[in-house]
Amino acid sequence: MTATTPTSNRGTATQGGTPALVVVAHGSRDPRALSTVRALLDRVRTLRPALPVRLGHIELNEPLLPDTLAALGGGEAVLVPLLLGRGYHVKRDIPDMAAASPARTRVAAPLGPHPLLVDALHARLKEAGWPTRPAPDHAVVLASAGSRDPESRADTSRTAALLAARLGVPVVPAYASAATPTVPDAVRALTARGHRRIALASCFTAPGRFATQCAAAAPWITSAPLGTHPSMARLLLHRYDETLMTDGAMKRRALATP
Predict the structure, then answer these.
(1) What is the full DSSP assignment across 70-114?
(2) What 3-state DSSP class applies to 23?
(3) What element of type H or E holds 243?
(4) Catalytically active residues, by annotation
(5) What are the CA-CA distances from residue 7 to residues 2, 22, 72, 101, 240 (Å)?
(6) Average confidence (pLDDT) over 71-96
(7) Most buried pick, 113, 176, 187, 203, via CB within 10 A?
(8) What does the pLDDT read at residue 254?
(9) H or E segment at 25?
(10) Average of per-residue pLDDT across 59-83
């Protein structure tokens, strides 16, 4: 997805230079969420010090995305959603805000599904006590926020399948809202299939209401939200680079077309 607006005459740090990476977070009333996102951006800056990295929120926290984009003037930016699948925010909210801004923007894919996301999920589970060699009665519920968008649910299911392949046990997606099954329903279904050690993998970028709600329903260990895990910083940069490479390839094809 790409949203482009005319270039303004206002100079910015990115005007004519490296496009800024704008990380687009949802926003949360939980203060831990904002501090976690800021710490994650610090990790990204450490990995690539010369890259301008900005933060914008869809709602609830400042800076809001329209304000972040306005501050860029007519500069270039790649907007990378700090979201784990497709849904309304990725398909409508972010592109609409980008199109209304003076900046020249491209919108990257959400973070999931991707092997780097699975790396972070796996690591968080191990930190919570997941065994190196799980037994046949082990299983995992992959808890995420939920969406009415079928493509969002498909992305979560794909992430669950990738995690199952990594762990060698069943992984069932479950949702905090707007979709089924819920975490308790997924736990009951796995228990009925004979699983006695059911872990909860928190597929959330930061602490918040949904992560807390899902953790309360876990029958065994619960992993922490993905937060500042190194793979998350690498994944943000991967989506940024991927978007620039795709855009460059499209321009080359357009120039080569007679």
Answers:
(1) HHTTT-EEEEEE--SS-SHIIIIIHHHHHHTSSSEEEEPPPS-S-
(2) strand
(3) helix 230-256
(4) 26
(5) 15, 18, 11, 10, 21
(6) 97
(7) 203
(8) 61
(9) strand 20-25
(10) 97
- Cβ-contact 79, 94 below 8 angstroms: yes
Q: Which amino acid is at 77?
A: A
Give kind and range of the element (H or E) at residue 186: helix 183-192
Per-residue confidence (pLDDT) for residue 16, from 0 to 100 = 55
Give the strand pairing for 20-25 and 76-81.
parallel
For residue 7, what pLDDT is reported?
Answer: 31
Residue 257's Cα: distance from chain center in Å?
35
pTM score:
0.90
| Closest of 199, 201, 205 to residue 231, by C-alpha | 205
Query: Which of 15, 12, 19, 21 is closest to 42 using CA atoms?
Result: 21
Residue-level pLDDT at 244? 96
Q: Please state, in angstroms and rounded to a whole number, the distance separating the CA atoms of residues 111 and 86.
A: 9
List CB contacts of 150: < 8 A, sequence separation 6 or more: none
Mean pLDDT of 18-44: 97
Closest CA to 12 of 66, 51, 70: 70
Write down the pLDDT at residue 257: 61
Q: Which two tokens stand for residue 226?
A: 């993905």
What are the residues whose beta carbons fall under 8 Å from the beta carbon of 157, sequence distance 6 or more? 173
Range 138-161 average pLDDT = 97
For position 17, what pLDDT does the model report?
82
